[in-house]
Amino acid sequence: MFAAGTKTIVAMAHLPPLPGAPGYDADGGMQKLIDWAAADVAALQSGGVDAILFGNEADRPYVLRAPPEGLAAMAAVVTAVKPSLSVPFGVDYLWDPVATVALAAATGAAFAREIFIGVYASDMGLWQPDAAAALRLRANLGRQDLKLLFNINAEFATPLDTRPVAERATSAVFSSTADVLCVSGPMTGMAVDRGALAAVKRAVGPTPVLANTGVTVDSVADILSLADGAIVGTHFKRDGDTWNPVDGDRVRRFMDRVESLR
For labeling, which of 34, 62, 235, 262 is most exposed (least CB within 10 Å)? Predict the structure, then answer.
């Protein structure tokens, strides 16, 4: 699915705030979360996306360690909608790579995306993910087939590592055996720096590289000329607003454009 040159489009299924997050709708409860996710999945699949990535994007302000109530709720939501899935799916619990791997194993996900490496000054404070713990957990759970998508330039943060992004990408493949690399803009929905995207792809050769944020129907041709695919969230939402439900018409227009490029 993520082989170099495949031009894979992974669509985000952003969940509403989970239990424990300040925005959680206690009156709507778990059923509201499940219904929202099911509707987004239906719209994304009917639009022809290649895979779906479940994320807790609405759990603002973000934390660096997953709380048990949020992690359990996300596992329950994914499990509830899993029977309706006809495409591969992945998970991402922001911003905890170890919890994300555990969640992927519990739900049977095919892939997981997170910030696995580096040290950052971030909106959440000093950010020090632990790739070694995440990869060891993957091995201990018997999920070496689980593809790990390494986001190598974190959103909402600045790396304290001063090496160029292409050098950090090469190091991620060598030292942490990253399966796929993701290149992001500075925030959710903001465009990727095309120079950085091209530099990372040149540096890592056969390792697949995805544009992680800000891809639109107008930019996708240019992006796919530089990368092996993209993760799309905000652009698929009604009115292009990250917090709105998925708009099936926007998905179909985007995927029609992608099919013309493949």
Answer: 262
Instruction: Please choose, from the candidates 189, 148, 186, the residue with its C-alpha nearest in 3D space to the C-alpha of residue 165.
Output: 186
Q: How many CA atoms lie within 13 A of 39 on its CB side?
A: 14
**Ramachandran angles phi, psi of 64, nearest 5°:** -100, -5
- Amino acid 3: pLDDT: 82
Closest CA to 217 of 251, 188, 243, 192: 251
Cα separation, 12 vs 62, in Å, equals: 18
Question: How many CB atoms lie under 10 A from the CB of residue 187?
Answer: 14
Average the pLDDT over 138-165 and give the result. Answer: 96
